[in-house]
Amino acid sequence: MNIILFGPPGAGKGTQAKLLQDKYSIPHLSTGDIFRTAIKNQTPLGVKVKSILDAGQLVPDETVVDLVADELKDPKYDSGFILDGFPRTVPQAEAFDEIAENQNKAIDAFVVLTVPEKELISRILSRGQGRTDDTEEKIKTRLEVYHEETEPVQNHYSSKGVVKEIDGIGTIDEIFERIASSLK
Ligand code: ADP
Q1: Best of 28, 30, 49, 53 to mutate for ligand 1, by most ligand atoms within 8 A of CB?
Q2: Considering only CA atoms, which of 111, 131, 156, 166 is closest in space to residue 56?
Q3: Does ligand 1 have an atom closer than 6 angstroms to the CB of 168?
Q4: Does the Cβ of 111 fall within 6 Å of ligand 1?
């Protein structure tokens, strides 16, 4: 099963992705995690994207698309994957359509976690992961970028008939149950 987990910063994508990974035994691919690891290890990619992540802005489409296209060639993704944090712009979604076609990896479900904005901000501020982009100012920037650049990606998938809207308010287990039943 090939799944895209979608939703604003703080919606719980990372948490739910890990649960899905365990239940369905398919790997979780988080572009944000890849960037944070690259920054920590000071790789050329990390050096390139550090100031962008710190500012709460988006990494250029081409960089992300190349990265995902390359990563998905790993045979571990052959039996499915959970994409988290990608595609995040309409051009990324269009580029991904091509990748998916070339690599024979059609998306089965586009899972949208919906959470009100106030709740998002308080969740991020209280999760205390020590991320440099988790300050109130940077969260506001990330939410703005989300509304402008990322939200339109949902429309791109509506026409494919794969969108599942999930209420992202509740306990972690309740939300996971909702996602799992939407995938049946
Ligand atoms: P969140 O959604 O909680 O903000 P992520 O871990 O998904 O966190 O992403 C963190 C940051 O990594 C983003 O603010 C952005 O700078 C960068 N990033 C991750 N995925 C992408 C992407 N697909 N396109 C552009 N930038 C990305």
Answers
A1: 53
A2: 131
A3: no
A4: no
Ligand 1 contacts CB of residue 64 (under 6 A): yes
pLDDT at 159: 92
The token pair that represents 105 in the structure block: 């990896």
Query: CA-to-CA distance for 166 and 129, rounded, in angstroms?
Result: 25
| Nearest residue to 146 via CA among 53, 8, 5, 11 | 8
The residues that are catalytic are 13, 88, 127, 131, 142
Indicate the residue type of 146.
Y
Name the token pair of 144: 């703005």
109-114 β-sheet, strand order: 28-30, 81-84, 2-6, 109-114, 163-167
62-119: per-residue pLDDT in tens? Answer: 999 999 999 999 999 999 999 999 999 999 999 999 999 999 999 999 999 999 999 9
pTM summary value: 0.95
Q: What structural domains does the chain harbor?
A: 2-179 (3.40.50.300)
